């Protein structure tokens, strides 16, 4: 496929040539096309040649990508074919790129195979968040399984606690309890304690 810019200002005589190949793959039982090489021609001479990578689709489909570029910030799907030619002097970027070389019907693109990878940043972030939520859920289930119920069984050894008043040696105070000197002492004879099992 060739794009000829004609007489558009400084682009006069510029041609962008796409070399496409078609191959049959037994595994998918269908033909696939791929962009093999891209050439820039100016005044009928080849100025730069780029090898294309990962630009392919089933022959009955078209190929679409937001950016097809020779720049690293756009994932560099176009690679200079040689270190000695003039390709490194060119920076090529196609925005909203779509191509179909075979089985074109009524002049319209067929269904597009998009270049978005399965592990885009958004998908990776979603997977990480799902993993974190799954770990939190697993920890909560683990804590619920190992939670022990509170058995309300008390084992009490009931011996009533009482405080007995120690009597003074002077027995004369017993006759007049209201006239006590106010010094009273108590002794803890017994105590009650319970065991709670949890």
UniProtKB/TrEMBL annotation:
<dbReference type="GO" id="GO:0033176">
    <property type="term" value="C:proton-transporting V-type ATPase complex"/>
</dbReference>
<dbReference type="GO" id="GO:0098588">
    <property type="term" value="C:bounding membrane of organelle"/>
</dbReference>
<dbReference type="GO" id="GO:0001671">
    <property type="term" value="F:ATPase activator activity"/>
</dbReference>
<dbReference type="Pfam" id="PF05827">
    <property type="entry name" value="VAS1_LD"/>
</dbReference>
<dbReference type="Pfam" id="PF20520">
    <property type="entry name" value="Ac45-VOA1_TM"/>
</dbReference>
<keyword id="KW-0812">Transmembrane</keyword>
<keyword id="KW-1133">Transmembrane helix</keyword>
<dbReference type="GO" id="GO:0030641">
    <property type="term" value="P:regulation of cellular pH"/>
</dbReference>
<keyword id="KW-0472">Membrane</keyword>
<dbReference type="InterPro" id="IPR046755">
    <property type="entry name" value="VAS1_LD"/>
</dbReference>
<dbReference type="InterPro" id="IPR008388">
    <property type="entry name" value="Ac45_acc_su"/>
</dbReference>
<feature type="transmembrane region" description="Helical">
    <location>
        <begin position="118"/>
        <end position="141"/>
    </location>
</feature>
<dbReference type="InterPro" id="IPR046756">
    <property type="entry name" value="VAS1/VOA1_TM"/>
</dbReference>
<dbReference type="GO" id="GO:0012505">
    <property type="term" value="C:endomembrane system"/>
</dbReference>
<dbReference type="GO" id="GO:0030659">
    <property type="term" value="C:cytoplasmic vesicle membrane"/>
</dbReference>
<feature type="domain" description="V-type proton ATPase subunit S1 luminal">
    <location>
        <begin position="1"/>
        <end position="102"/>
    </location>
</feature>
<protein>
    <submittedName>
        <fullName>V-type proton ATPase subunit S1-like</fullName>
    </submittedName>
</protein>
<feature type="domain" description="V-type proton ATPase subunit S1/VOA1 transmembrane">
    <location>
        <begin position="117"/>
        <end position="154"/>
    </location>
</feature>
<comment type="similarity">
    <text>Belongs to the vacuolar ATPase subunit S1 family.</text>
</comment>
